[in-house]
Predict the structure of cysteine desulfurase.
Amino acid sequence: MERIYLDHAATSPVHPEVAELTYDMMKKHFGNASSIHGFGRDSRRILDQSRIVFAKSINAKTSEITITSGGSESDNTAIIETALSRKEIGKHLITTAVEHHAVLKPMEYLEELGFEVTYLPVDETGKVDPADVKAALRKDTILVSIMYANNEVGTLMDIGTIGKIIKESDSAAYFHTDAVQAYGSEDIDVKRDHIDLLSVSAHKINGPKGIGFLYINEDIHLPSLIRGGEQEMKRRAGTENIPAIAGFKKAVEIMEADRSARLSSFEKMRVFLLEQLEKAGVDFELNGSPDQHLEHIISLWTKGVSAEQLIVSLDLVGIALSAGSACTAGNIDPSHVLIAMFGSDSPRIAETIRISFGLGTTMEQIEILVEELGKAVRRLKKT
Ligand SMILES: Cc1ncc(COP(=O)(O)O)c(C=O)c1O
């Protein structure tokens, strides 16, 4: 049985060239990048070269890139450290109801510390209205954190418009965006879109896990969440993971070289999948924005069929995809994203699956998916 992985939004397989390079680096470059001897200098050189590639990929300066352990740390740093260091200016933050928990949990933590958070609603496509951002901004707003693209339904937010609104307002708010899902698919430009802070993670773009970066605009001084040594220009303590950083750099280079071919093939696969499902008589509806979305994420409401049962059935035939809702410790928690889009009574909450394409996905795999999904839906609808 060929196993088919269609859960790339959860995490992606490491590209073979990335794996090879990372392993090679582990063997050869173990020096501490802070050491002044040759071993250390070798590591430092790799670190510096990688930072140049990361910065260029979002039109930032190299001094604006802080390497972190991934999306969660970048989000936590951006939100918690902004709030703690700017509390004399104000204690109000704005975010949306559909952010990843790496944003929502730090926001809840700040509420416990006495900060006030406005959670903006989204429409049925998962989009926040820029006019709502404008209306929520206050003199004491210190941070707006709005994701670039949603990880469950793939909807893209109007980041450029929102960035402009924040910059033109009288508020002193910084603009943070969690670009963990969008990075690799979208043409991200922090200067064009007035972004002050931006989070990225390597494992969504076929890089190693546990590595990412936080872009911090050069005019911002953000204390480190991880305190200790003076690495990363005193912005993030901890001996740098040079093999993972070099692997991440390689993943970015491959991602940039392949981007347009990859996106057009995902678009074809998406259209094909939806057409074939319709032909197969599967009763479904697409969740998310019909025109402003990531090509590789497809959130489907499989009407009348439990997502949990569908996922287990497909897993038995070797196909891996995920529920619209997050699985934690074997349980499916209702998705806060789908609840924000459709309300907690919507049948979509328990009947949504997420299919996500990536490295290694082929049309043949989509054909198999359609066949197996059709069979499973017919069987489960009867029971
Ligand atoms: C939108 C978004 N933000 C943050 C994260 C967390 O990133 P990491 O797994 O690198 O900590 C994820 C991971 O699923 C994500 O999808």
